[in-house]
Amino acid sequence: MTDQFLSIKKSLPTLGVGLGLRRELADTTFQNSERIDFVEFTPENYMDVGGAAFERLERAKELFPLVSHGLSLSVGSTDELDVEYLQSLKSILARTDVPWWSDHLCFAGAGGVYFHDLLPLPFSREAVAHVVKRVRTVQAMIDRPLLIENISYYMKSPGSEMTEAEFLSEVLEQADCGLLLDVNNVYVNSVNHDFDAKKFLNEIPLERVVQVHIAGHKKTAELVIDTHGTAIVEPVYDLLRCVLSQTQVNAILLERDQNFPDFNEIMSEIAGIRGIASEASREARSVEPASLERDCQEVLA
Predict the structure, then answer these.
(1) What is the rounded distance in angstroms from the CA atom of residue 96 to the CA atom of residue 110?
(2) Residue 292 reports pLDDT greater than 60
């Protein structure tokens, strides 16, 4: 177990508050470039393509710092790593000159079948060892800082022998990689699986957080579902405050992938996130370090 990534994090740029590059919002996003700090793109949408899609990414690169957030790494799968995919990924990351790249702590396929979904792993020591080996392999192949994201999940995988927080922590520390912390996913999972969200945050290595995702969700009679299709709710904003009270974060991304509102509503959410980040930064300069964890507990009490 090493902590080389913590040294790498110190050299990474601080990007601010950004928005995902979505075809439906692209033109308006470009028109508001002075109000959006960075853009996150999905590399699978732009690998080995030309035409309008490639032009969209090139335009984004002209206007914004870019980061990459993938869907197909399937780092938890028992299938062999897709070398062709990784080579294409490395090429587009070089072309866009991203400071880091990210994907999900999950598996997305098995037996050569891609499921078009992000599926949870068993929270087991065997799964930790398996994922750590694969994370180290892809980090060496891509040679850029890697962040893994905590996913939302709606059933617990058989064979679990630790909590999600313990599992995530073990993977991060043994693989020595960074964390893309999705605070909406933390909230969704805490409601669906009946655990304490603030306790979860206090149990994971927040010092490894480079980027945060924040989004809205949908409530049904039985579940809370991570949709990226509604406004952010106050308990999720509170989780963001909690994280920012405890660690330095380089980037915060508003995820909005469907049910797009008037763009002014999106910009209002970005402004609200930026205000929370600014407030946290001011408080961090004036508060004694020993009181930060207590502040987090109070924010979420």
Answers:
(1) 30
(2) no
| Helix, coil or strand: residue 42 | coil
CA geometry: angle 239, 244, 247, nearest 5 deg: 125
pLDDT at 297 over 60: no
Q: Please answer whether residues 269 and 254 qualify as being in contact, where contact means their C-beta atoms are separated by less than 8 angstroms.
A: yes
The count of structural domains within the chain is 1
Alpha-helical regions (H) of 69-210: 83-96, 125-142, 164-175, 183-192, 197-203
Phi, psi of 190 (to 5 degrees): -65, -35
Domain around 112: 4-299
Residues near 272 by Cβ (< 8 Å), separated by ≥ 6? Answer: 232, 237
Q: Tens of pLDDT along 184-203?
A: 999 999 999 999 999 999 99
CATH number where 177 lies: 3.20.20.150
Q: What is the CA radius of gyration of the chain?
A: 18
Among candidate residues 66, 147, 42, 144, the one with its CA nearest the CA of residue 103:
147
pLDDT in tens, 213-225: 999 988 888 898 8
Which residue's structure tokens are 């790593």?
81
